[in-house]
Every structure is written in structure tokens, then in C-alpha cells.
Amino acid sequence: xxxxxxxxxxxxxxxxxxxxxxxxxxxxxxxxxxxxxxxxxxxxxxxxxxxxxxxxxxxxxxxxxxxxxxxxxxxxxxxxxxxxxxxxxxxxxxxxxxxxxxxxxxxxxxxxxxxxxxxxxxxxxxxxxxxxxxxxxxxxxxxxxxxxxxxxxxxxxxxxxxxxxxxxxxxxxxxxxxxxxxxxxx
Length: 186
Ligand SMILES: [Mg+2]
Hints:
By secondary structure, this protein is of the alpha/beta class. Helices cover 43% and strands 12% of the residues.
């Protein structure tokens, strides 16, 4: 029996632990259950930059051109905290519709390099250390920076980033990147 099952969309941040215990009866279709799955409240992308305008620009393109929701962080330390928060959330409120891997976290992190408090290189290294090699295979961290030198690129890859994009990034470049590295864009 379904108990306490609200027949309305989830409010932002609302959690339904009871959902994980419920069984489907004739009144709730698998589609309705899937629409209310905790995994639907977890955006797949994290945008990290100390410049809020860069974040808003990226989030706008992601949302309007690709229908992708994202979270934000203003430095490497905040990014690490977001990753830790996500891991805890996935463990506490597991996906019940089968579309989310239990080991998953953000699938893509766009990481600025130069940021106060903790830069993108250290942020990436700390995230990598926290998640471990297996979980990192399911995440793509890409540098999004204004620098273009080969040495800088090398430094990004050395810190554990998977790729490198230069700002300002166009919707076309973003499409090519998301298509190559994720399942979010065909
Ligand atoms: Mg910066």
C-alpha cells in the first residue's frame, strides 16, 4: 500500500523517505513513480567558478540549450562539499526508478582553475581523493578557464581533470563536449 504519497510534484528539496518503501498498486503508474523518484531532484552537473556571472552564463546555456539542471560552487572547497553532500544524499535517498547508478555523483563538473580559498587543481585532487578511482570513472571533471597555454593544460590533466575547455565557451563547443563525454546530449 502507498501511504503518505503526495499526488503532486516534489517541492524543491523535499524528500520522501516513504517512497522507497512503497509498492506500486493500480493507482500509481511506473511513470508517476519515476517522476517522483529522489534521483529527479539531483542535477547531473556542477558548475564551479569564483565569478558568479560565469556560473550564470554556463547554467543558462545548459538549461536553455540542453535542458540540463546544474548546481554551483564558488571555489574548490565548496565543490568538494557539494560532492560529499551528493554522495550522502544518494546513500540516504536511493533512486527507486532504476535510472541512477547507486555509485553516481555529479556526472560532469565544470571547474574553473583560479579561485580563492581552494583552486580548481586542488579541488579536483581532493574530490578524486574523496571519491576514489572507481567512482571517479563515472565523473568527468573538465577545466573551464581563460588560460590557453600547453603548460596550463598539462597542469589540469596532472591534477586529475579529464579535459580542458577555454572560456568563453559556445553552445556548439558545449554540445560537442557533452556528446563526447556524457549520455545527456545525443
Ligand atoms: Mg576564476
